[in-house]
Amino acid sequence: MTLLARHYFISGKVQQVYFRQSTLAEAEKIGITGWVRNLPDGRVEAIAYGQQSALEKFEAWLNVGPKMARVDNVSHRPVDACDVPVSFTLHSTPVAA
Predict the structure, then answer these.
(1) What is the pLDDT of residues 73-90, one digit of tens each?
(2) Which CATH architecture has domain 4-76?
């Protein structure tokens, strides 16, 4: 099986609704590694590593999110699966430039 990686941007009401924590729990349940963080512009960003079927389940979940969230859009692009992390983690929000 080939390991794939995807870079996601999720928009809508996705901050202050436990989106990152719920994403972490879902990723661990599915067997995805990577990370998730809030962005200063109100979106959530994630990079996920896993098998095709696991990434499809993860993306389906991202399109819905946790109960308090309202997901308007999920965009993604493939990225190279290098330096694959061993777990899924929460990252800090980057400082706006």
Answers:
(1) 999 999 988 888 999 999
(2) 2-Layer Sandwich (3.30)
Q: Which residues make Cβ contacts (< 8 Å) with residue 12, sequence separation at least 6?
A: 65, 69, 70, 71, 72, 73
E strand segments, 2-87: 4-13, 33-38, 44-50, 70-79
Share of the chain above pLDDT 70, in %: 97
CA distances from 19 to 30, 50, 72 (A): 16, 20, 13
Q: Is position 73 annotated as part of the catalytic site?
A: no
User: Which one from 6, 38, 63, 73 is the annotated catalytic residue?
Assistant: 38
The verdict on whether 77 is a catalytic residue reads no
